[in-house]
Specification:
With about 290 residues, this protein is an alpha+beta fold. It has helices at about 10-20, 160-175, 230-250, and strands spanning about 25, 40-50, 55-60, 65-75, 80-85, 90-95, 100-105, 115-120, 125-135, 140-150, 180-190, 190-195, 205-210, 215-225, 255, 265-270, 275-280, 285-290.
Length: about 290
């Protein structure tokens, strides 16, 4: 297994054991400021340390990972962003909602002297949530900071024009996109490609593909191309975070919270999957959305 990838076993262990909620091991350091009827934003920052005195879990090789926990109260429609930074280890955050479902975000790059991880959550139920902070690698100790920023998000944000277009594509998918099929533009290696009469945006290039005799059918939208790296990253994150919020509101499965280093983010229900990609080719960048 590559050194820079967080082992799946670690994630499973975190979900089932390490992050069992124990009232005695939580702190209120990130729960000092909250939104209210008159306050639309709230923030806290804490400097903490992973030490030998912290709680830990032990993997099959006998290696320990130490962790801290924090309690955070959220109101309905609070959008909270956590940012963990450390110069001692690769960072990893885990957030447990009121239904005991866990959302992860971690730094999957080689440690280069500084590590940053961000996690965003949109609360649809008021209550006290639990955040866990740890290291992506075993036996790591040292200081780190976590910044918590909360802002109220009006419900309409979850129904913006982009998400409305996504919902239309999901509806078209129910009849295998037959109502929006345009001109057939390609047939290669069993893949039949058609233009779509519907477009995600005014400037997107949208196509429908069929494979395996029509058993596999995908909607592909090239949202933007010939972008600089910064432009592509900004657009990718904007879309990924909108999809993330939609998944949270509908209880869909989703990838770990997207970060500036991410190049792929997907959400899925039992029937559908939406994936946004950041791609590089010949020195330029593009952002693509796929429904399958």
């Amino acid at each position: 297994m590559k050194k820079n990838i967080l082992p799946l076993g670690f994630l499973l262990t975190l979900t089932s054991n390490v992050f069992a909620i124990v009232p005695g091991d939580s702190t209120q350091s990130l729960n000092l400021h909250k939104t209210s009827v008159t306050l639309n934003t709230a923030s806290d920052k804490v400097t903490a340390t992973l030490s030998l005195n912290d709680r830990s879990n032990t993997n099959k090789d006998g290696e320990k990972r130490y962790y801290d926990t924090f309690k955070v109260f959220l109101n309905v429609n609070d959008e909270v962003t956590f940012k963990q930074e450390s110069s001692k280890f690769r960072t990893v955050l885990s957030f447990v909602n009121l239904e005991k479902k866990t959302q992860f975000s971690f730094d999957n790059q080689e440690f280069s002297g500084k590590s940053t991880t961000s996690l965003i959550y949109h609360a649809t139920t008021a209550g006290v949530y639990t955040l866990f902070a740890s290291s992506a690698d075993p036996e790591k100790l040292g200081s780190y900071t976590i910044t918590k920023t909360i802002k109220k998000v009006v419900p309409e944000k979850l129904n913006d024009p982009f998400l409305a277009s996504c919902l239309k594509v999901l509806d078209y998918r129910k009849n295998k996109y037959q109502s929006i099929l345009g001109e057939k533009v390609n047939e290669k290696e069993g893949v039949h490609t058609y233009l779509s009469s519907f477009k995600m945006t005014d400037n997107s290039t949208d196509e429908v593909t069929f494979e395996n005799g029509g058993a596999i059918y995908n909607y592909n939208s090239l949202l933007a191309k010939d972008l600089s790296e910064a432009e592509a990253q900004k657009l990718f994150l904007e879309i990924a975070l909108k999809l993330n919020n939609y998944a949270l509101s509908k209880d869909w499965l989703r990838d770990p919270t997207p970060t500036p280093k991410s190049t792929l983010f997907a959400i899925s229900s039992e029937q559908d999957m939406i994936t946004v990609y950041l791609k590089q080719a010949k020195g330029t960048y593009s952002v693509k959305l796929v429904f399958n």
